[in-house]
Write a structure and sequence with these properties.
Four copies of one chain form a homotetramer.
Chain A: E1 2-6, H1 10-21, E2 25-29, H2 37-41, E3 45-46, H3 50-53, E4 58-61, H4 66-74, E5 85-88, H5 94-104, E6 110-112, E7 115-116, H6 119-123, E8 127-131, H7 135-148, E9 149-154, H8 159-189, H9 194-203, H10 209-219, H11 230-247, H12 252-268, H13 277-284
Parallel strand pairs in A: 1-2, 1-4, 2-3, 4-5, 5-6, 8-9
Antiparallel strand pairs in A: 7-8
């Protein structure tokens, strides 16, 4: 299929590479053009603008935040009026997702398709995709989503619902990290090694990737280099907070993780992993 | 082996039954004697007192709270000076576990062996046991622990460490329930069905029993009859809180779940499941 | 002095009236022009635009939110290039206050002068003003601030500092309300009337207007009509939250009040007073 | 009047001294007898036991905690069956206050009369007393309460209600300290001096002793020597927590202050003032 890909950070570049490997005809664009070099070498076309990349059946975008997505859609040479169905993978606010769905109505169409997975999963084509939009739009981009993921969850016709699920998932991750951090700190001050507690947890009711992955990070204090930095984590939790304000949902656990992300950044600096909330928890207990 | 079993509630009765099935010679005692009838019918000896039940190589106890354990150990006809190694399965305070270890020193010995699992798991012999105590004590009761569980975690020589791990595990369960409750409420008010969110979560990073079991309870509002009641859950969280005070560990997430347990009991009554914190979360968002 | 006044809601109209009474020559402007009628009757000049109102020595603005202030400053016929010193009384974000100070630099100047006080205090000329800006600017507008207030606090040369103090003050008010709400609910469920607790508190260490005013509101359940509505309160607390994120300051008490404001709005509707967080607290305890 | 006084710490000694000054005939007792020396020198009788001190019309007690009160009432030579009306000034649990009222029924009577005020206020006879009990009991001890205080609040016939009000008051103090700590930290990181913020607060809506006293402590970092230590503060907050559990009242702000007291003790040591929660708040923001 003829497809454009906009946003070639570590996640986006890996996804575009997998589209090429799957045999699709890919045009790529990135604000800093040098990020496109490797993909062009690998067979992609270098697009001159977002609009140029969207001269395709589908244009996929994977960008850092609301502002970047706004610029690519509504900015100069933006994709809004292009012939391509827009599949947006970025983690953005519910409000923007709703606005994008409205803006694309009567045009080529819009699908929200945020992903779960760290860069390594993106490179392996093992992301999870949560997709929402009109059924025929979802059908149209299905082969592309399959090419970048191990599984696609279709969750209905309202695009922003996929963003809400994505944000909820990130909140669930931080909640599990917070719980682990508090329990491990209690255990450690009580004379039980973090690894010991973790082995029991993952060997019983908590045998899920979220506990295994983050449990090891916490047990071994592996917070640098960051797999996903605390400032990015806080950005996402702020998006959850905005959704909670819009829907009037009290979320005290969200408050706890936001405060600990602020503490981790204030105490450790911006390069700390978002799991570094554990350091703030430990410091609160006087063992940091 | 000749073994005594004290405390024949639903959990204890199931465990004693599995000891019988495994071929052990079991004497049973319960404060309300009729709870022993079925086991006597199945081949157990009816002990006249805790002390009588402890005329054995090992005496196991599975009781409701600190007071019940105190009574069985230090009360009239208590087991403190009996010849049996005491294996305590009850969920008790760290402070009592430490005191019991000290009290049994120089006597027949003490092992803390709290369990994870609901009554159905106890009946199937599928509990998880977390055991701590002197190695020779752990060796001596090993066949008995195997008879009641699918797996035994040995975590060292300090008995109270096992209680700390047990309490931490219960805190982790409530934390996962709280996280699910907040995320599901946010999702539902934003137009995403609870089941939809749950399917994505358990299909991606959250494929652990804790999310599957409690996720279904929350998605289907199955809070009665209680598998584990909110007042018992609050009792356990208060034990965690006492440990946190003793070790000076701030645990804001613990504070959140304790407040929601109080709310659930105040709003719903004492017969609500501890997962009923989700009802308090929903009510806070105006959809209760 | 020749002065313009922009924004004639209940607060602004009262302030402009007091300027007239003090003998100043006042031009007034409001987006809905009929709000100016009474003031024109009382001797004010009806300005044709914000820019027209700012043909003066000083132009004061008292508007609802960031967007309204932006429109008046940077919009069509905005005041940015007018000859008048801009004295901004609105409760706005720190970020906007910083931007406004920068934008007015090299022009006629900018002072942040947010106020404490409900409409009745504004009518009586009994507001408190917190003012920050260049000393000569503060000197120039001093007679005007005196005319609308019982006291002016000068807190330095950085305008946004005044906004930070204002937001902190509103946070302190909500914190006192939250504390009263929790204590009164505990007292009431324990058999002590709210009025009884309040009398002891205000008769001892808590004899300040914030406890007297809000204590009576809570003791008597006077949440409608709202003196200051919960949605406006939440808006302000969100501004505090944004400042806390920008400065990386964990504020768990802020999290508590934001959650209870959300709960109050979700449960009671948008017309509830911000002190209605007490209803959410009571409901959490099953007595709502 | 013939009166006994039990418990001669800094608070109790000051109160007993004021009883002497008011012309009462005072017998004193303390577990460490040397604490009575100065009072005996000043004219008090040295009692041989609590029971001996209670050979009087009224016996007042001012002790450290539940255990100390239990010992004096129910221990060897305890006062339970003495002829004196027991007036209990100690800060104790609601549960113990209820038990004491029941235990004294049909005997000489019981009044709960906890006090507000630091040692300096006790020395000046400027305490506030919150008193509850039977009217004739309150009448009988009225001259004594007047001798130690600037004001007595009678709040009804149920003694434990006075303890509930006292605990609620201490919770209100810690809530004000927490609010000040968060606001001052936000202000300071935003470039506003703590003193500046405090001057505006106490000059406007927050002109109460609680903000003046603790505001200065926080502004000047005067946390040692402790006027009231963090461990004692945590003990009191734990009593509030127990009352909240008994009445099923969610109190998230209580959770915040308990966590910060734990943090202050863990980070600073047991000699820190309870207002030292501010240090934990600052440390959380990376400026500790």
């Amino acid at each position: 299929m003829k497809v454009g890909f906009i946003g070639l950070g570590r996640m986006g570049a890996a996804m575009a590479t997998n589209l090429l490997k799957a045999g699709h005809e890919v045009a790529v664009w990135n604000r800093s053009p040098d990020k496109a070099d490797a993909l062009v070498q690998a067979g992609a076309r270098r697009a001159a603008s977002p609009r140029d990349a969207a001269e395709a059946a589908v244009v996929m975008s994977m960008l850092a935040d609301d502002a970047a997505v706004e610029a690519v859609v509504h900015g100069a040479d933006g994709i809004l009026d292009a012939p391509a169905l827009h599949v947006s993978h970025s983690t953005i606010s519910i409000a923007l997702a709703e606005r994008l769905a409205a803006d694309h109505a009567g045009r080529a169409g819009y699908v929200s398709a945020p992903v779960f997975g760290r860069p390594a999963a993106a490179e392996a084509g093992k992301l999870f995709v949560v997709a929402a939009g009109a059924t025929d739009h979802l059908d149209r981009c299905a082969p592309l989503l399959d090419a970048v993921s191990q599984r696609v969850f279709r969750i209905g016709e309202t695009p922003s619902a996929a963003n809400l699920v994505k944000l909820s998932g990130n909140f669930m991750i931080m909640s599990a990290v917070e719980a682990l951090a508090e329990a491990m700190t209690l255990a450690e001050k009580g004379g039980v090694a973090r690894e010991t507690l973790l082995a029991v947890l993952t060997g019983t009711l908590f045998g899920a990737p979220v506990y295994q992955t983050y449990g090891e990070i916490l047990a071994q204090d592996r917070f640098r280099p960051a797999g996903f930095s605390a400032p990015l984590g806080l950005k996402d939790m702020n998006l959850v907070d905005a959704a909670a304000t819009a829907s009037q949902v009290p979320m005290p656990l969200l408050g706890v993780v936001r405060d600990h992300l602020r503490a981790a950044i204030a105490q450790e600096g911006e390069d700390i992993d978002w799991a570094g909330v554990a350091l703030a928890v430990r410091r609160g207990a006087g063992i940091g």
